[in-house]
Description:
2 domains; elongated
Amino acid sequence: MTGLVYWLDMAGVIVFALSGVILACRSRMDPFGMLVLAAVTGIGGGTLRDLVLGVRPVFWVSDPTYLWVILATVGVSLVGFHYIHRLSRGFLPVADAFGLALFTVIGTHKALLLGSPGVVAVLMGLLTGVAGGMVRDVLARRVPMVLREEVYATASIAGGIAYVVLTWLGVAMIGSIGAALSLTLGLRLAAIYWQLSLPVFAWVSIPPRQSQNDDSRTSQVQQAKERVRMIRRTRKRR
Length: 238
């Protein structure tokens, strides 16, 4: 099963790197910008996860294959540059959803292997799944998906919890991986398709301009009343 986890990790790197390339193209970046976005998206989350868990060296240092995979993804994308521009706007969120699901499971799995408690494993899955995309969006001057009201981090947390619970119940690894992947991906794709979002809480306040307008309207009414009184007095005198 170790081989399955490894290839799932590689698939997540490819998908996330591709999402970085697509965003770089839409942001009109040069090939170096494409490589930077692809790299931070593909290995950024896993790098932070390993640093937090105290893994030395981080995974891509001990296995440079991840770097070659990112370079190959960018190279193929440069060859098919014109086809990338023809992709619909919905392709990036869908590709990102697949990467989120894969990296959530990989991060949770690795944390459990290192003996981390369940809650820490879920957080490591979340970090692996969302950190790279956050850095990518910040570099492209976009609000990261995880900070919007979309169902994004929630899907990752649900997938991580499902994997931890199934592992504790003694379910086979392939079953736990499949269930966690399906849950995370299903929630995220459902949120994209039906435009589901979390409730937004905000303070409601009266802007200063509105109060100024109210004061001006009050003064205008008082002036009108005073004019009416002056007209009535003038008529009485006549």
